[in-house]
From TrEMBL:
Signal peptide span: 1-16
Lineage: Eukaryota, Metazoa, Ecdysozoa, Arthropoda, Hexapoda
SMART domains: JHBP (SM00700)
Domain of life assignment: Eukaryota
Record Pfam families: JHBP
Gene3D superfamilies on file: Haemolymph juvenile hormone binding protein (3.15.10.30)
GO annotations of cellular component type: extracellular space
Origin species: Brassicogethes aeneus
Protein name: Uncharacterized protein
Keyword terms of this UniProt record: Signal
Amino acid sequence: MLVFLLSLTLLAFVSSAKLPPNVKLCSKKDQNFLRCVEKNMMLAIKEFGPGSPDLGVPRLEPFFIEKLEIHGSQTGSVRLDQNYHNVSIYGFSISTISNLRIDHDKCRWEFDSVAPNIRMESDYALNGQLLVFPINGHGKSNVTMEIDIKGSSEIHTTWLIGTSVRKKIYGANRTRKPKKIIVSV
């Protein structure tokens, strides 16, 4: 998700498309450049929650994922495969970004983010084993999380589309530290 947010910010820097009035372009010459980018990234997250067909931005609130599979270890005393379908994720629009660092020469971005209330609603199926006890279940799920995220992204590819320069995020690393998780199944 945050990779998408960085893409959106890059779009704001290089796009000739019309941005919403409260999302501003930031100049590298501005002494408060990093703060400007942080502020406008958060504004863009909120502004583009319903999506923007003109800019090719998908809907963020809720963010929809058709299928999500998490396969656990197939050895050991705990095995659990998780399959989620029709996943709707709410809460990205209230995420905050801080401690932004940009190395323009290396095209590297680093930042911290807090997602204070992420809610995932989906259909689920679980299959596994805890010691000798089988785990099998399916139904509706609701998972609410508060997550601290530290991330970095590297942007390597540049190409021209008409008169606009576009950049593609090549690699992204995220460290997620859940503060709280509430699971209802």
